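Q: Give me a backbone?
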Amino acid sequence: MDALILAGGENKRMPVIKAFIEVNRRRIIDSNVELLKRMFNRVIICTNNPELYFYIGVPMVGDIIDYRSPMTGIFSALTIPGISGLFVIACDMPFINAILVKYIVDKWKDEWDALIPIFKGKPQPLHGIYSKKIIKSMEKEIKHGRRSLIEFLRKINVSYINDGEVRSIDPEGKSFVNINTLRDFEKEIGGKICLG
């Protein structure tokens, strides 16, 4: 299985590139690429600005439909030859838990379209697995202007990992934290943003 880091967002709510925010003196994206490389065949970054990430040295893919959203990024990566399924995270998630990632991957079965953890009663679509089987239905949703992953999950064959299982590994749900705003940074990390 391969892993996908979504870094194609428009970054409108932050004055800096979210993937480059430093936590413990390392860029979020650098830490996550290193972690995922130990667990997956390859790590792919979805971005419409590949020049920002050349230094990392991993494959990249851009949105193949001109409609920016996490769903478009997932769809674009699933079209890559040789990919049967993807474990997906966002570029601004600083607390990815390797034990939880392994738990999710170990539970995966090819019969499903997606495998998504639940935390606080809510699906966490940017910390789950998506099968190549969903390409056609996902493309249809995107082209009809429907870009909500939560809504899309209701239309496909999804297995959910319940809240209790998730909390047994990550009690506070830190894995699902993402840094969208300066306020998020101050709340979750503290201090000032450093770009390095």
Observations:
- Residues 117 and 165 are 9 Å apart (CA to CA).
